[in-house]
Amino acid sequence: MRRQAYLLLAVLWFLLGLLVPESRAQAPEKHPAMAYRGWLYDGLQYRELFAPEQVDTLYVLAGEPVALSAHRTLVYYWPLTARYMADWENMDETLPGRLEISPASQEGATLEVTPFSLVHPEVDTPTPRITLVTGGEAERQYARYQTEMADYWRRMDQYNQDAAAYEEEMREAIKAVGAGQKNVPVPTAPTQPLEPQLYVTEPAPGYVFTLQEGRYTIQLRGPDGQIVSGSRRQVVAFQARRQGSSYTIIPADQWTRPQSSNAPEDTLYLTKGSVLYFQPRAVREYRESYYLRLKDPQDTSGRDDRWVWVQQELLAGGRLEVCRGGRPVLSVSEKPYFVEQLPGAALGYNILEYDPQEMAGEKPTFHGYRVAVDDAPGGLVQVRFRDAQGNLVPGSERDVRLLSGRPAVQLYLPALLPLLLAGVLSVRRRAQRRREELISTQEG
Amino acid sequence: MLDRLFLRDPAGRHSTWVLLRYRLWSALHGRAFYVAGVAGLVLVAAMLGDFMNYLARTGLAISQDQLRTPLTLTLSLAAVYLSLSALVGISREREQGTLLVLSFGPVDLWGYLLSWQLAQMFGYLVLCLLLGVGAASMAGLAGLPLSGALLPLLALSILSTAGVIAFGILIGSAGRDLRNSLLAFLGVTLVLLVLEGLDAFFGSLQAGQLPGAWLPVSRTVSLVSGALAWVSPYSFLPRGLAAIYAHDWGGYLANAAGALAYAAILLVFARLGAERRGVVP
Questions:
Q1: How confident is the model over B32-75, as pLDDT tens digits?
Q2: H-helix or E-strand containing A276?
Q3: For residue A4, is it within any domain?
Q4: Within this chain, do residues A125 and A79 fall inside the same structural domain, yes or no?
């Protein structure tokens, strides 16, 4: 028995040892290898991709452009994160050649290198979305961005000069007032120019292609006509299983703690007096394993049997409807809001409707559809979203329930139900016993 | 053999029926049955109360079916309680020598095991009804809607509980004595539930939340848990529940049929185990 206990302890010790990372210094062995770098769209933004030879399959969204470039770099394994990494600093050779795709993509079966840029749009546009542009368009967009930036720096130079002049004028004015001079004109402060919201990456060479849903093989054919060793990869282009509308809901009481409702089956529970700001977004449901490997090709933690909702672009310009019995009782449009911190050391804030005149120099904190629970007669029962054209957005309906929000003691009353049954059975049993006793007495 | 299996012998059938009624009435007239029912409902009330507290604190709560987790948990605990009570009953009867009656009485081993299985199942039906009605009343008091998944969940839980009860009968029949049987039952249950819980925990973490060094552990747990799900009596309810919420009614029915087949197989093993162990300690 004691021997078994020792054996068990030894096994446990060994298993624990497996879990504890080694503490010796790490100097990983690096070896030159072929790797793809690129940009993939994840439904909301473009993500950088690194796919060494150990990543045999790339996952991309069907119908969205992908940009890849082929490199030779030093690849090493980093045990602390269990990932293959690249030492770009010490080796980064761009491999020339043509990328072959089978079956062919929309752009063809063989792709040449083309310059591409990522265009980050102005934040204030209704549905900001990063786009990937190629060829001459990439050059044009980048030139536009450079012009905007040059103009901004020119205005900043002017602003700095104006600011210096303003300070000088202000000092003079203060001096004049100090000397007893009356009716001294107050200098006007210059307005600082706003930084351009547009951002365009410098055009970079790459193979840009868009795939329909399916499985593909890619490989690089070098200038010598041979397939570049280690360049073959499988590519899985996948689509969403379901799509709908998700809501990011900001409670006025806790504006820094928004909650999300992705699935149409969700019910929203509110308490009376709640004020909420709804931010509708497009949402799509993807296979978890595919989506996680799209975001990180080395992440194998996703499961094939699970699905994830992924929030995407904001749905702007429509109206949020509050319905009762299927009929809208309230229709709200989107407005910008500004969170004003209360003055003083104590914490607190107000959420105000953003007024560009009164709040010059400030930006709206967020945009949203404001719904106060008291706005809807008889309590809320359903919310849904109509787009700018007035069409109902599929999957945007949510049931809403107004609750007291206080756990009542009565909640525990049904827990006495089993005791009620016990009492009934006990009474019946006693009655039966009494009957039996009576019968036996009569017989006796 | 078939005659015995389907209880075609009238005397054996009658005796099994008498045994079943005796066990059911014993359970219904004992305190433990009602304590289990009250405890289960208190658990549901506490979890719903916690949800209401959260709502009062935040003014907003989002949920698909607030009754799902508390009811599933309490139904699973009720199943474990009935399985455990079958195990204790069988082990005690062997230790007390009551099983000797099988050697010369009108009831054979099949009838004996079946009486336990059916009595516990009827007991579960009563508990299930109490828990279902109680939980629905609590939801009504809290103002929560009753989900359409409630009835399919209760129906599935009856079939999945057949497997859990058969598991207790198997351990009770094949175990050496009460102490060893209890340890084996609790040990296996603990390992299965801990693995299932760990798997669910790792699964609930979003990408990046789990440190890289834990990924192999998570994968191993997922692999082992997935393999054990084929033999675990506790896997039918969560699997069926997932099918209900995915509106996969084919999967739901397959799972229900699987739970029944699983219970039947365990009863066959229980009989073999009981024959091997004998009727006295």
A1: 899 999 999 999 999 999 998 888 888 889 988 888 889 999 99
A2: strand A275-287
A3: no
A4: yes
Rounded Cα–Cα distance for residues B47 and B76 (Å): 15
A303: three-class secondary structure by DSSP = coil
A413 within a domain of the structure (yes/no): no
Cα(A183)–Cα(A436) distance, integer angstroms: 114
Residues A263 and A385 occupy one common structural domain: yes
Instruction: Residue A85: give the domain boundaries.
Output: 30-134+199-238
Tokens of B137: 């009343």
Q: What percent of chain A has pLDDT over 70?
A: 89
Mean pLDDT over residues A307-331, rounded?
86
DSSP state of A27: -
Query: Most A CBs within 10 Å: which of B42, B43, B48, B62, as the mutation test of the A interface?
Result: B62
Helix H or strand E encompassing B77: helix B68-96
How far apart CA A36 and CA B165 sit, in angstroms, is 56
| Chain B: closest CA distance from residue A8 (Å) | 16
Q: Are residues A210 and A106 in the same domain?
A: yes
Buried b or exposed e, range B65-97, using 16+ CB within 10 angstroms: bbbbebbeebbbebbbbbbbbbbbbbbebbeee
Q: How far is the alpha carbon of A82 from chain B, nearest alpha carbon, in Å?
A: 6
Q: Is there a contact between B263 and B162 (Cβ–Cβ < 8 Å)?
A: yes
B243 Cβ contact partners less than 8 Å away, ≥ 6 residues apart: B249, B251, B252, B255
Q: How far is the C-alpha of A95 from the C-alpha of A233, rounded, in Å?
A: 16
Report DSSP letters for A68-112, one per residue: EEEEEEEEEEETTTTEEEEEEEEEEEEPPSEEEEEEEETTEEEE-
**Residue contact A407–B143, C-beta within 8 A:** no
For residues A206 and A99, give the distance between their C-alpha atoms in angstroms, rounded to a whole number.
Answer: 10
- Residues B50, B189: Cα–Cα separation, whole Å: 27
DSSP line for A386-422: E-TTSPBPTT--EEEEEE--S--GGGGGGGGHHHHHH
A266 contacts in chain B (CB < 8 Å): 62-64
Answer whether residue A122 shows pLDDT above 90. no
Same domain, A278 and A204: no
